[in-house]
Amino acid sequence: RLRADAARIEAEAEISRLQLAREAEINYLREQNELEITKKAEMSRIETDKFKLQVESIGASTIQAIATSGPDTQVKLLQALGLQSMLVTDGHSPINLMGFGQGLLGGLNANTISNAGGAPN
């Protein structure tokens, strides 16, 4: 009888300890997630402010010159401004970006991907 009570008390204590450990872990993860969200939001705000300042400092005439210039001139202007890439639109025309990612990957297609593993053609 005493051994059964002692075992029950030990089991209840272990369950209580595990519950507290899980609650502490959940609280820790929740705080980590909140910190990560705050960090991402702040980084996003910083990038947005940086972009606004760049656009303001570049000016409308320079942006227009980039948009209407040839590809070589566009590359030189973007490099001089410290920009890697830029998309200029009139804000009214829709943009189809369906093939955009493929262009970034250098025309990577399904055949290229399947052949990358050494599969015969």
TrEMBL record:
GO CC list: cytoplasm; nucleus
InterPro entries membership: MVP
Name of the protein described by the UniProt record: Uncharacterized protein
Organism per entry: Rotaria magnacalcarata
Lineage: Eukaryota, Metazoa, Spiralia, Gnathifera, Rotifera
